[in-house]
């Protein structure tokens, strides 16, 4: 559902940056940073999209640990 929303927004000409939760091939919960941008022709028509997905699970865990220590 979230992936469909990101794809639709990108193909409508929007840049998108979101974090998504997903399960890896071993069934573990992971967090990804997803960034997309439309590919636009010289005439201004959206011809496609470009996306990057980066696993940020470790960064999020460290941030949670720091918050817990501060409490």
Describe it for me?
- This protein is α+β, with helices and mostly antiparallel strands and 71 residues long.
- 34% of the residues lie in helices and 42% in strands.
- The chain has two helices and three strands.
- The chain has a three-stranded antiparallel β-sheet, sandwiched between helices.
- Strand 1 and strand 2 form a beta hairpin.
- The protein is elongated, with a radius of gyration of 16 Å.
- The relative contact order is 0.19.
- The mean pLDDT is 96.
Short description:
This protein is of the alpha+beta class. 34% of the residues lie in helices and 42% in strands.
Secondary structure category: alpha+beta
Helix content: 25-40%
Number of helices: 2
Strand order of the largest sheet: 1-2-3
Q: Which spans have pLDDT < 50 for at least 5 consecutive residues?
A: none
Instruction: Give the percentage of residues in beta strands.
Output: 35-45%
- In round numbers, the mean pLDDT is 96
**Whole-number radius of gyration?**
16 Å
Q: H/E order of the elements?
A: HEEEH
Global morphology? elongated
Q: What is the terminal separation in angstroms?
A: 35 Å
The total strand number stands at 3
Major beta-sheet overview = 3 strands, antiparallel
Please give the structural blueprint.
Layout: H1 2-11, E1 16-23, E2 29-40, E3 46-55, H2 57-70
Antiparallel strand pairs: 1-2, 2-3
List keywords for this structure.
71 residues; alpha+beta; 34% helix; 3 strands; three-stranded antiparallel beta sheet; 2 helices
């Amino acid at each position: 559902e979230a992936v469909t929303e990101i794809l639709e927004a990108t193909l409508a000409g929007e840049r998108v940056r979101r974090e998504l939760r997903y399960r890896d091939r071993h069934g573990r919960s992971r967090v990804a940073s997803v960034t997309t941008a439309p590919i636009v022709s010289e005439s201004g028509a959206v011809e496609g999209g470009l996306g990057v997905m980066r696993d940020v699970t470790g960064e999020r865990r460290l941030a949670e640990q720091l918050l817990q220590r501060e409490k």
